[in-house]
Amino acid sequence: MHMWIPDSLYKLLPFVYALVGAALIPIFGFSGPSMVSAILLLAASVLTTLWRYRPQDDAPKAMSPSVRDEWEKRKERRTESMPLDGFQ
Length: 88
What we know:
Radius of gyration: 24 Å
Number of strands: 0
Helix content: 55-70%
Largest sheet: none
């Protein structure tokens, strides 16, 4: 996968998220916006770490078609069965 940021910075991102999240509280105090931002940054740190080190399945699981895919198929069938005015 091609990244637009350097690999060294990419590896540090969870730590940067956690550090900035923890630094917000002493800098801005226990105000609502700083607490929400700190919690979101800490959650981003945890989720990023979990997603990176959790084993990924190589083979995608068989999924049922999404609602959007079904809608597209129905739309295609409708437009194919419509008569074209003037071209019959």
